Amino acid sequence: MTAAPQNSDAEAKKAARIEYAKEGGKLRKFLGFVESLIVGPYVLGDELSIADLSLVGLVTGVQGGQFDYVTDEVFSATPKVLALVAAAREQPLVAAELASKK
Fold first, then answer.
1. pLDDT by residue (tens digit) across 8-51?
2. Which of 7, 9, 83, 97 has its CA 20 to 30 A from that of 50?
3. Residue 4's pLDDT is what?
4. CA 15 → CA 19, 70, 74, 83, 90, distances in Å?
5. pLDDT band at residue 102, thresholds of 50, 70 and 90?
6. What DSSP line would sit under the chain, residue for residue?
7. pLDDT for the residue numbered 2
């Protein structure tokens, strides 16, 4: 996964994050690549894997506003990623972990 740009200068950070999340940016390219790999409800098929859990963390973070200047619009072209995250969130251990973070 590609890391969100960091910068101590607020304006530079904003510009870098907008670039990172825009159409053709690193985050969108990464999400498109992952979208192409999904072969079932999860990345590797029927079994939940660490790759899926990583996506849950990314999507949950973006949707929760944890990435300044990155909105959930970045997922507009990746319906399989969103479906995968929704399915993973239904798993009891994942649901319990997410509930404990609220």
1. 888 999 999 999 999 999 999 999 999 999 999 999 999 999 99
2. 7
3. 80
4. 6, 11, 16, 30, 35
5. confident
6. -PPPP--SSHHHHHHHHHHHHSTTSHHHHHHHHHHHH--SSBTTBSS--HHHHHHHHHHHHHHTT-STT--GGGGTT-HHHHHHHHHHHTSHHHHHHHHHT-
7. 64
